Structure formats: structure tokens, C-alpha cells
Amino acid sequence: MTDASTPVLLTIAPMTVAVLRETVPVAALTEFFDRAFTMVPSVLAQQGIVAAGPPMAVYSGVPSGVATVAAGVPTATPVSPVHGVSSLTLPAGRVARVIHRGAYDALGESYQALTDWLHEQGLEPGPMMWESYLTEPTPGGDPADLLTEITWPLAR
């Protein structure tokens, strides 16, 4: 079972994120995340840059059969591009945010609830959204305990 918190509207500052970007089949996202969340910290360590927040994934458009995704971590300073890792600046502005509690494979339910809520408010989601993984999955851990923060900038 999954659970989502009540959505909130916020105004956020821009955020720099060190990421690995690819377009991958949705079925291959786990493999991509495994590579990205290994490669990005390695590049940061080589450049003496410290993560400034939890791991995250940034989606360009709503994934269907394939996803254009960038996965990595926020940083205080941009990373020098190497091994496919580069910096991405997430824009400042108004966003809708909700916390999803539960397994990753049920995130779609929280996205749908957030989309419905936005439309009820007369607001339109923009073309980009991101997930911040507030808890790390552990072997033998209960997926119901996972917390994922979904942030969706509003269309201008």
C-alpha cells in the first residue's frame, strides 16, 4: 500500500545537480539508476565536491515506454563534465510538492493524485518533474517505509 501526503505549493530557488543523463526504456530504469548513483558520487569524489542533498531523478516529460532522465545529487558547485556526468540547473519558481510513502513501483499513483490535485486548483504541471529519494532502500527493508519527495514545477 502507498500513501501520499497532502500536496503543497512552494516557491523554490534554483538548484545545481550533478547528473548522468540518458533516454532509457522504463523497464531499464533500475539499471540506469544503479549506474548513475555509482558514477555520480565517484566523479564528485574525484573533483572534491560534496553532495548537498539526497539522490534524485529529474524527468523531462512524463515517462511512457521510454524516459528521458537525469539522475544524481544536488551540489553547491557545478561539476566539471566527465564520464557523461555533468551539471544541471533546476529552475527557480512555483512548484507543487508531495511526499510519496511506499514502493517506487507505486510512484505513478502519487503522480496521478498530484496531477488531479493541480487540475482541481486550476494549475497546469510543467514539462519537467523530479523525485528526491529521502530514504535509501536497504536489503530486506520494507518498501512501505520508503519516502520519495515529488516536485513538479508549474507551467508558466
Notes on the structure:
The protein is an alpha+beta fold and 156 residues long. It has helices at 29-47, 107-120, and strands at 3-4, 8-12, 15-25, 56-60, 66-74, 85-90, 93-101, 128-133, 147-153. The longest helix has 19 residues, at 29-47. The N and C termini lie far apart (34 Å). The model has no long low-confidence stretch (mean pLDDT 93).
Task: Note the topology.
Layout: E1 3-4, E2 8-12, E3 15-25, H1 29-47, E4 56-60, E5 66-74, E6 85-90, E7 93-101, H2 107-120, E8 128-133, E9 147-153
Antiparallel strand pairs: 1-7, 2-7, 3-5, 3-6, 4-5, 4-8, 7-9, 8-9
Helix content percent band: 10-25%
Structural Rg = 15 Å
Any idea what the CATH superfamily is called? Regulatory factor, effector binding domain
Name the beta content range: 35-45%
Instruction: List SSEs in N-to-C order.
Output: EEEHEEEEHEE
Distance between the termini: 34 Å
How many domains make up the 3D coordinates?
A: 1
Task: Name the overall outline.
Answer: globular
The CATH topology is Multidrug-efflux Transporter 1 Regulator Bmrr, Chain A
Tally of DSSP helical segments: 2
Task: Indicate the structural class.
Answer: alpha+beta
Q: What's the β-strand tally?
A: 9
- Please identify the top-level CATH class: Alpha Beta
Task: Pick out the low-confidence regions.
Answer: none
The biggest beta sheet reads: 9 strands, antiparallel
CATH architect. name = Alpha-Beta Barrel
Overall residue-averaged pLDDT value = 93
